[in-house]
Design goal:
It is built from 12 helices and 17 strands. With about 450 residues, the protein is of the alpha/beta class.
């Protein structure tokens, strides 16, 4: 033994020990692999005749609040997030259109802050302005004559710009901002987020009885319930903002062009391109339009030209698809039929379950599509029947995430459910709804 110890140094023993341990580990893993066809670790796997290094541990995706990411779970276990209105439903249409709306921008182009220094809204790209006017005239959903176009980073920024522009500077206290319940859940949050001394949220327009000037927000079709809306406060001192994000023919019949002093629209819900962050306002009063432009100048020094040019390309394609449609290529025909199908599926699921109700809408003539149909809103306003008092919590227990009525100024028996998610998620949702009995 003494001779053996003299031959092997401490380093030799360490190497020998390491080799024995590695051999033992590999033996265990290979034995496990023979029973399970894989093991946790790196190994070489034959695939299509070629060897590739593959990590065999279970692949997972980072958790996301959006149901738009596919999860490797069975549909039974999958959480369906329909709390928000992410319009990924439209992806299949734009994928089918391929390169039709691709925009290539050289690195040297559009580097200036200015689009047209002589224009009232100096950061508005002329091509976008042209396509906005063209699409409104084609669809017939808004008057553009004698209107100023103000572009914003989504309609949210335009809403803030409108509050800034319309608020009087001489009043002793902030002007009240109201909307009839159920109102868009973000209105109170956006209005009060800066704690402005110019304006403040004052709640439900139906219960508002304060003397003096006020701003009333009119969303039509309404988010969350889908009904057409008009102002409800009976006072001559009111200033109106009309949010017409959903006044497009896939959601509601276009009966006549909207003709109001200040109207807000967005690419997000009209074309599905929420990520562009482009909205626009049609403003009758020049001074209001200038103040809105000034707000956007102060907050973001304009709006991304890249996004504006991409939006212009998309709007142009939509107009072209409606004027000279090839079979199946008309954007509004595609989106109308998809929304009609989804609402039919939801109504069947609600009827089969028996625990829920959704609104009924009277059919109207859509002058653009030249057909009668019921409104088919971007959100379903669902009520839980019977003893279910908190519909949002109840559906969360069924792994369906929604937004409860309390966020919209009404009873928690109601929830808002997005109708705009991808096909797979929507199909899972309606199937799950149909099977809920208690």
């Amino acid at each position: 033994m003494a001779k053996l110890l003299s031959i092997f140094s401490v380093r030799n023993f360490l190497v020998l020990s390491l080799a024995l341990n590695v051999s033992l580990i590999l033996r265990v893993l290979v034995k496990y692999d023979s029973h399970n066809e894989s093991f946790n670790g790196f190994f070489f796997k034959e695939q299509n005749g070629a060897q590739e290094e593959t990590h065999a541990s279970k692949r997972t995706r980072l958790p996301s609040s959006s149901s738009s990411h596919t999860m490797e779970k069975s549909d039974e276990d999958r959480v369906i997030n329909l709390d928000h209105g992410d319009p990924t439903m439209y992806e299949s249409y734009w994928q089918k259109m391929g390169e039709e709306t691709t925009v290539v921008i050289p690195g040297w182009q559009f580097m200036s802050y200015f689009s047209d220094a002589n224009s009232l809204c100096w950061f508005l790209e002329p091509e976008l302005a042209e396509q906005i006017v063209r699409l409104h005239k084609l669809v017939g959903n808004a008057v553009t004559a004698k209107r100023h176009i103000v572009v914003g980073t989504g309609s949210t920024q335009l809403f803030q710009a409108a509050l800034y522009a319309l608020s009087p500077r001489t009043e002793a206290e902030p002007i009240s901002v109201v909307s009839a319940a159920p109102y868009y859940s973000s209105y109170p949050l956006i209005t009060d987020c800066l704690k402005s001394g110019l304006y403040k949220w004052a709640g439900d327009a139906r219960s508002f009885n304060k003397n003096g000037p006020y701003i009333e927000l009119v969303t039509s079709p309404n988010n969350p319930d889908g009904f057409a809306r008009h102002s409800v406060v009976n006072s001559s001192e009111g200033i109106l903002i009309h949010d017409l994000a959903y006044y497009w023919p896939q959601y509601t019949p276009i009966s006549s062009p909207a003709n109001y002093d200040l109207m807000l629209f967005t690419v997000s819900k009209s074309t599905g391109h929420a990520g562009m962050r482009i909205g626009w306002a049609l403003v009758k009063d020049e001074d209001v339009a200038r103040k809105m432009t000034k707000y956007i100048e102060l907050s973001t020094i304009g709006v991304s030209k890249d996004s504006q040019l991409r939006a212009a390309k998309v709007l142009k394609f939509i107009s072209n698809s409606c004027e000279s449609p090839n079979e199946g290529d008309s954007f509004f025909e595609f989106s109308y039929h998809l929304m009609a199908k989804r609402w039919k599926q939801l109504r069947q699921a609600v009827h089969q379950s028996g625990l829920f109700s959704v609104p009924d809408f009277p059919p109207q003539l859509c002058k653009f599509l030249n057909r009668f149909f019921e409104p088919q809103p971007a959100f379903a306003w669902v009520k839980c029947k019977g003893e279910i008092e908190d519909c949002e919590s109840f559906l969360r227990g069924k792994k369906i995430l929604t937004r409860g009525g309390k966020h919209f100024g009404v009873s928690p028996k109601y929830v808002r459910i997005s109708m705009l998610d991808r096909d797979k998620n929507y199909a899972t949702f309606v199937e799950r709804m149909s099977m809920i009995r208690s």
